[in-house]
Structure formats: C-alpha cells, structure tokens
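User: Sorry, folds how?
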Amino acid sequence: QVQLVESGGGLVQAGGSLRLSCAASERTLSYYNMGWFRQAPGKEREFVAALKWVGGSTYYADSVKGRFAISRDNAKKTVFLQMHSLLPEDTAVYYCAATGRYASTRYPDLLTESEYDYWGQGTQVTVSS
C-alpha cells in the first residue's frame, strides 16, 4: 500500500508560482506512473499532469501546458508539480496519484483517474485575482 502526502499548497496572487510536493511511503517512486489531478469547487476532478515511469515522458492538460511541470527528485521518493503564471482558474484542491508498481499504462489512459490506485489527501491551491 503506497501512501502519498501532498504539501506546498497555499494562497498566491495571479501570476505567482507554487511548487507542490508529493511524498511517498515507498522507498522509491521510480517504478510508478505518477499523476496530478485537481478539483475546483462545484466541478469534477480533472487531469493536470502525468509522469511515466518508463522513459520519463510527461503529459499535461492543455490548460496548464507551458506553465506547469511535473518532475521527480533524485532519490525518487518525491514528485513535484511546479506551477508558474498561476491564474484564478487554477484554484482547486490538487491531488497526487500513483498507478500500480510497474504498471504499463499507456499515454491516453494516464489522463484517466481510474488508472491510478493510490491517492493523496489533497492540498488546497488558491489563486487570487
């Protein structure tokens, strides 16, 4: 059972930056596909970014492309979501998620919540205008 804990959320002005962290209970996240999702008030949870464990390919929602970046640290136990040029519409609870270990999840499916087996509790990001 992988436990994920997000941190780094907070209140920021539009145009600002934040870096979210996702710490895992596992010794390494090297063999897990990782994703970030978000849920704004009154809306369904949506895909934000994903990092494939094989090859390290990254994928982004169109709404965050060029502004957000997903990465993994050298010790492979923490995943980050660096967010720049934040907009009020980025306000949401951000969730970190992981697929099963060694999962051979293909690109389109990485955008789907149901492909992820483990979830964090979420961290609030609020962007003021």
Q: What stands out?
A: The radius of gyration is 14 Å.
